[in-house]
Every structure is written in structure tokens, then in C-alpha cells.
Amino acid sequence: MDSEAVEPLLKVTDLVLKYSTRAGPVRAVDGISFTVRPGETLALVGESGSGKSSTALAIIRILPRNVAEFSGSVVFNGTELMKLDDEEFRRKVRVGGISMVFQGAMNSLNPVLKVGFQVAESLIVNVGLSKQEAMKKAEEAVELVGLDRTVVQRYPHELSGGMKQRVLIAMALITRPKLVILDEPTSALDVMTQANIMNLLKRLKAEMSLTYVFITHDLALASELADRVGVMYGGKIVELGPSDTVYSNPRHPYTKLLLESVPMLRADRPPTFIPGTPPDLINPPPGCRFHPRCPYFMKGKCDAKVPKEFRTDSDHLAACWLLEERGDE
Amino acid sequence: MNKSGNLITTEDLKIYFPVRRFLRTVGYVKAVDGVSLHISKGETVALVGESGSGKTTFGRALLGLVRPSGGRIVFDGLDITDLEEKDMKRVRRRMGVVFQDPYASLNPVFPIYRIVEEPLVVNRMGTPEERREVVMKALEDVRLTPPEFFASKYPHMLSGGQRQRVAIARAIITNPDLVVADEPVSMLDASIRVEILTLFKEIQQRHNVSFLYITHDMATAKYFSERIAIMYAGKIVELGPTKEVLSDPLHPYTQALIEAIPDPDPTNRFRFRKVTPGQPPSLINPPSGCRFHPRCQYLIQGTCDVVEPMLIRIKGERYVACHLYEKPPMEREGHQ
Q1: B301 Cβ contact list (under 8 Å, min separation 6)
Q2: Nearest chain A alpha carbon to B189
Q3: B-contacting residues of A 123-182, CB under 8 Å?
Q4: Domain ranges in chain A?
Q5: CB B20 within 8 A of CB B272
């Protein structure tokens, strides 16, 4: 796969998002860059606090009030989103552009409104369809995600967790988006329901040629969808590459250790853990943010200079000084 | 394995919750419906099931927090099924519990010291000086070092993993024989999960504690339990040595659960997972016969939907409740 051959659908460059807190600014997203090509799935994987959800919120511009700094470039479908005002953003991006499926199927729906109206709402508010037309589309949308049309007449409490999650997916798809951001779409669901939802996402991807950004802390689950994987640590992307090489030949020590911490069901390899704790994003460690936990730590190098991104294969990047030592092919 | 070394045994344990409409009881939620299980001294048994399978209720019954509707619980030779609360309290001293959510299970206005000390105070164990020593030792045991530093902190100052360590310290402070750990790592990040489970293992080896590890996660159960019990709709459908069950699952439900769980493998994206249709049943009116029969691809009409399968021994320590295995092996082939 050549990265230059296809025009990316989403191109994020040097994205920075800082929150102000009493203790000082938190560098939730600290200068990350990546692209997503049409029809592919990029998984952003990281532990809590690594900045993966903040990245999603920054792209779709749902920001909390305490933003201290928000900069960089987000080009979607040829348009620089950072230059759009809120009204333009709503018209160009929220409708038919980027949709998001939020985590927490249980709590994302309004308990006092019928499901159908909640699915149709963005068509009524953002597109200006009449209620009847929008409701008809809502019926089609819930059918698309494998639910019965009559679900639109029901209230959220009448549905199971898996059904609610399907409703949230229908809600995201009803505006016919080009890019769907999935933020932990199966958290709090049982394993069989999770497998069902992942099958649905695979089917929709193929049928509607959707592009996904899939945010998860679970490397095993990420492999269900990801064509490429970006591994985040301490607000930065430490490794980015095709799933085929990231899983089989991880180049960053963090990725390697994270993979080794996953208990495998089909192979017999006792999982290990990464000693230490994730970095404090108010006062992150100097140099590489992973250096205090890294078994390959090189004194005077890793704790002094922020590692450059090294290209290990044509499409595989990792930010680690070890790759310089081993020779940057 | 060592029958004499059983710490806790349940026999045909039933826990029903009444469903009331106005003042009348109109039915029962059969959360646990005839579960027989034992845990040996120093053993970890994983109890695996989906939400609503009754696994948490079973754990609470062992701790004497819900009263059984039928069956027996024997703890170290003593029948605790219908014990008075004041007697149960004495038994409970020998049990500890770790809950799922370390953000909700620790009192936010108590410093860590007081949280960990509390079981000793409640059970009137030791003088304040002796208690202090025990608390510091427990904090060290769970690697919250230096203990003096953590003792004065409040829960909100700690990370999720550290809070769960506090919960573990509290669970082991009375030097219990049994610890019920109910989804102790499901709220934690992947890399911390293994760290906490490794800690459980260490504590077990040091103090010879028995663990009931309640979880929905078969992958962690695989590496942190000796035996595994698979629960579906209030019943154990399969029981046996963990690695044997997971590498060669017998019950169709166990097979379906394993099939649903991904391992990190980039080829996953090219295939759809085989998912059993349907939902776990209502526990008020569970299906007749085998509770899994409406979803089972090997359904034998006239048997599975009529006769309830018993948990029978297949080989060694392996048990399964499925009609497919009740027939002689020659006939069994025909149904596959």
C-alpha cells in the first residue's frame, strides 16, 4: 500500500489539545499527525488518559469548556476544518461528513424520548426534513443496523444493551457520513453482544464503504476492524502502521509490551504487565514519555530528546530512539 | 482433586428473588438455580458468565449477603446456609470481598488507613497499635509502598489500579481463607489488569487463600484460575480445569462464548464471527429443559427442550450439563 497513491479522507497534522486545570494545562493531545484513507479503518489504541478520546472530540469539535489550547490542522475531504466557524462546521461536517458513535450504550439515549425521534432528530434539526420524512428515514436506518422497524416506537428502557448500541449506530449513519468515529462502541456489552456489534460494523463498512476511526483500549478488539493501527501513549502517537506489521512486528517497546499484556485465549503465553504508571500529562517526563517504564531506556538519550519518528517499513512509523541505533533503513 | 481440602462447598444452591406486583408475589427471579460447586483450600475457581447469569448473586451468597432459597452452603465444615446474622458475622471475618468498581467501593471521606483498618475495627480485632502494624503490612502486601505515604491519602488521590490495591488490602486484612473477587479488573486498563491479577496470585501463594474469581473475561480466567465454571441463566453448564475447558470446550454455550472473543490478530478483520442468535433467557420464566436449547445449534427435539440436563462427569475433573454427552460416544457422532 502506498500512502501517497490515494488522497486521504482525513489528514490530521500537529493536532494539539490542552485542557486548563487548577494544577496547570493538561496536554491531552500533544502534536499528533495521521491520515485516514477512504474505505480504511484506523484504530487508535491506548490506555485511559492516552488522549485517544480527546483526539476524537477534537476532530468532531465537541470540546469541553476548559480548553486551553486547540491548534493544528484537520483536513477532511479537502476542507480545512480548523478554519470553519461553528455554523459552517455544522453544515459541512456534522451532516454527511463525520459522525460519531459514543461509548456507553446504556446512558447515551434520552430515556423520555422514543427511539425513532432520537434517530431522526439530526435530519430534522440539521437537514430540515419534515418529521414524517425523517421518521421514515429513521425506520430505514434502524433496519439497516439489524433491528425491527417497530423499534422506532419504543423507549430506550425497553431495549437491551446491544439494541441500544445498534440504535446509536443507526443515529450516526442516518446523515450518510463519509467517516464514522467509533469511541469504544462495545464497552459495557457482553462478549456475544460485542461480537454481534463488531460483525455489524464489518458488514456496514463493506456495504456502505464507510471509513472508520476506531478508538479502543483493547488491542484484541482493535484487530477486529483495523487496517492500520495508531498506538497512543501520553498524548502522542508512538507507533503507526498497517495492522499486519504492528501486531506481528511491533517496533516501539510500548506497543510490544502492551501486546504482551493481552491474555491470549488461543495461544498459551502468560501475559506480563508494564511496571509503573502512565505519565502525568501536566508534567510529562522529558524526552520520550515512555522512558521511565521502558526496559530499553538509554540514559542521556531517551530522557533528553523527544524521539523522532522513524520509518521502519514503507508505511510503518515508530517514535523511538532504538530505531536510530539499529540503523534507519 | 483433594476432597478433604474443600474450603467451601455449595450443594444444589438456589437463590430466588420474589417479583412483587402490588403486594402479591407473582413469580420469582431464579438468579441461581441449583448450583453445586466447591473451592479447595488455596485454589482459584473462575466463575464465568454473561451479565444476568447469576454469577454475582452466587458470590454474594457465599459471603452470606443473600439468603439462599434452597440447598446448602458449607464453609470449612460448618453449615452456614441459615446462620443468624451474629454468627455469620464471625464466619465472615474469614472471608474478604473485592468489588468491580474501585471508584464506588471505597468511602471517599475516609483516608486509606481507615478504609483498610475498618474490617478489623468492625470485628473488634486487635488493639489500635496492633491494627496499625497489620494495616501497614497489608499495604505493603499490595505494593502500596511506602505504606505510610499511602495510608494518609484519600481515594480520589489514587489511580484506578491503586484504588483496587486498597480494596484488596481491605479484603485480606483479616487474613481470610476465602476472597470473593467480583470482576476485580474489568474497569481497569489492560496493562494494569494483569498486574492486579498477578498480585492476587502472589497473595494466594503467600497466605494460602482460596479465590472465587467472578468474571466475564475468559482470557484472564485462563491464566489466573485453576478451575473454571461456566454459568448460563442461573446454572453451571460446564466445569473443569481451566486450560482443558478453554482448549476443548464441551458445552455448546462455552464453545459459542469462546468463539465470540477475539485474540489480537490482524486477520480478524477479514472474517465474521459466528455468533449464537438470541439473548440469554428471562430468569422468571426460563425455557423448559436445557436453558440454552432455544439458541443451541445441536438441539435434539424432544430431549433438550423437555428434559433438564444434569451436570455429569465426562472424564477426569470435567463436568458438563448437556444431553449431547449423555449418550454413548458412538451415538453422539450422529448429532454433530
Answers
A1: none
A2: A47
A3: 160
A4: 10-97+175-325, 98-174
A5: no
**Neighboring chain A residues of B158 at a CB cutoff of 8 Å:** none
What is the distance between the alpha carbons of residues B11 and B135, in angstroms, rounded to a whole number?
Answer: 36
> B163: domain range?
103-175
pTM above 0.80, yes or no: yes
From CA A199, how far away is CA A216, in angstroms rounded? 16
Instruction: Point out the residue among B51, B258, B272 whose CB comes nearest to the CB of A199.
Output: B272
Distance from CA of A246 to the nearest CA of B (A): 9
**Rounded (10°) angle between helices B160-172 and B128-141:** 130
Encode chain B (336 residues) as per-residue pLDDT tens digits: 444 489 999 999 999 999 998 889 899 999 999 999 999 999 999 999 998 899 999 999 999 999 999 999 999 999 999 999 999 999 999 999 999 888 899 999 999 999 999 999 999 999 999 999 999 999 999 999 899 999 999 999 998 889 999 999 999 999 999 999 999 998 888 778 999 999 999 999 999 999 999 999 999 999 999 999 999 999 999 999 999 999 999 999 999 999 999 999 999 999 999 998 888 898 999 999 999 999 999 999 999 999 999 999 999 999 999 999 986 544 444 444
Q: Which phi and psi (to 5°) does residue B101 adopt? A: -105, 100
The ipTM (two decimal places) reads 0.88
Q: Which three cell numbers stand for residue B197?
A: 491479577
**B221 plus B244 within the same structural domain:** yes
Top CATH class, A10-97+175-325: alpha beta
Query: Please, which residues bridge with residue B118 across strands?
Result: none
Is A192's CB within 8 Å of B265's CB?
no
Which residues, listed in sequence order, are joined to residue B112 by a DSSP beta bridge?
Answer: none
Mutate to test the interface with B, among A191, A202, A203, A254 (most CBs of B within 10 A): A191
Q: Kindly state the helix (H) or strand (E) to which residue A239 belongs, with its residue range.
A: strand A236-242
One domain, residues B169 and B193: no
